[in-house]
Amino acid sequence: MSTVELYGVETHSILEAKKLIESLLSVVLEERFSSFYRGGTYLYYEGMREESLKIVINLDPYDDEPLEEAYPYVNIIMYVKSSNRFSDLPRILTNAPSGVIKLLRRETSCE
Fold it and tell me: How far apart are CA 108 and CA 99, in angstroms?
């Protein structure tokens, strides 16, 4: 079973989000750039069993519209793809200081 979750990260910058997520999850996020995939700089981590984190600014640089249109008020968004091994991930993330990270959407599929 695989789960894809979308989180809102209420930090002022993507670098603040990087520090927070790295400290909460004990991972190292890699800075990447793409002119094709949602344009611009994003942060990425890939673990075992197709687990991954992707953190981006919620703004499409080509049309200045939110990437996640249902959440225009969220500055930084994080996509998490995980397996059952990370079943406690939502608890860890949403227990961040001052409610900085909020679960916005979860989709589960059988793979």
Answer: 24
- Reply yes or no on whether the pLDDT at 6 is more than 80: yes
The dihedral through the CA atoms of 47, 50, 56, 61 has a sign that is positive
Structure tokens at 12: 């002022």
Q: Which contacts (CB < 8 Å, 24+ apart) does range 14-19 have?
A: 14/41, 14/42, 14/43, 14/55, 14/56, 14/57, 14/76, 17/43, 17/55, 17/76, 17/78, 18/43, 18/55
Which tops the pLDDT comparison, 79 or 86? 79
Rounded Cα distance between 111 and 108, Å, is 9
Can you give the pTM of this predicted structure? 0.86
Structure tokens that stand for 16 in this block: 């603040």
Q: Which residue has the tokens 């599929």?
A: 109
Which residue is it, tokens 């984190």?
Answer: 53
Helix (H) or strand (E) holding 9: strand 2-9
